[in-house]
Amino acid sequence: SQVGFGSTFTARLPFKTRKPKPAPPRPTTAASPRDGETAARREPRQPNAPTTDRPTVLVVEDNPDMLSFVGSTLRDTFSVVTAADGGAALEVLSRVKPDIVLSDVMMPGMNGFELCRRIKETPEWHDLPVVLLTAKASDSSHLDGLATGADDYIVKPFNADVLRARLVSLVERRATLRREYSTQITLQPSNVQLESDDAAFIEKAKSIVESQMGEARFSVEQLADSLAVSTRQLQRRLRDLTDESPSEFIRSMRLTRAHQMLTQQHGTVSEVAYAVGYTSVSQFSKRYKERFGELPSAVRASGS
């Protein structure tokens, strides 16, 4: 047994074909929560199990039976991570970035409303979809949930297929928005249409990079300091909004500005390279071709 991961059992069952023959031992891993356990825990995985590209759901539920039921309901579609209460869920979020959170409302300690509020007020998590699961069907409870920023509200008892479909829909919608934001930010760095905090964050990041466009030594750390966030927070937030790392974001801005200058024939290739922060013209040409599919000299000559 391993605390937080479960226990391994070996079962030997008689298997009858033409001749009775005992089956070889087959290890299985149990992941049922222990009584009184409040720490966050991952669903156990066999040591050599293949990795999965399924989206990850964080299920927050203090009732062990319900936690087990919801986990088994979603396991075929999602990679399931669990927490026994709101406090444990925040600890999980500090280590794992799920694609969606499904939380019970009534829990000891930090309840689902408070958990949702904390997630939506934290810059690195605020765009994470949160679905609240509760036995309270009243309109007032529903409004309380939505007031905390919850993306959906599901009442117990629920239909397992409907629950799964609504979670999948939210995850897919978020993925679609990320792709759209990434395309807009990559191709139109001055005309991005995002929502409130996201828009302000991206616009400020763009403004900072543009102000340092000609500075070859401008770094990811300097960008994070200018935005008053840690490099880790910057990494997470830019990945969520643009699907680019901070270094890729800076390079995209440099190359997009270079493309604008070249198509308008503002300077030679070397002048443009230095203007956008490259000290090596050959390195600039290589990056430019990777991005736009042709050498900068060809673009300048054609003016397109």
Give the mean pLDDT: 78
- Write down the overall geometry: elongated
**Helix-strand makeup class:** alpha/beta
Query: Which percent range describes the beta-strand content?
Result: 5-15%
Order of helices and strands: EEEEEEHEHEHEHEHHHHHHHH
Number of helices: 12
Whole-Å distance between the termini? 65 Å
Q: What strand line-up does the widest sheet have?
A: 5-7-6-8-9-10
Helix fraction bin: 40-55%
- How does the major sheet shape up? 6 strands, mixed
Low-confidence stretches: 26-51, 186-192
* Radius of gyration (Å): 25 Å
**Number of DSSP-assigned strands:** 10
Can you put this structure into words, describing what you see?
With 304 residues, this protein is of the alpha/beta class. 48% of the residues lie in helices and 14% in strands. It has 12 helices and 10 strands. The protein has helices spanning 64-74, 86-93, 112-121, 139-147, 160-187, 196-211, 220-227, 231-242, 246-263, 269-275, 281-292, 296-302, and strands at residues 7-11, 14-16, 20-22, 26-30, 41-42, 56-60, 79-83, 100-104, 130-134, 152-155. Strands 5-7-6-8-9-10 form a 6-stranded mixed β-sheet, with helices on both faces. Strands 1-4 form a two-stranded antiparallel ribbon. Helix 2 packs parallel to helix 3 (112-121). The longest helix has 28 residues, at 160-187. The chain starts with 6 loop residues before the first strand and ends with a helix. Mean pLDDT is 78; it is low at 26-51 and 186-192.
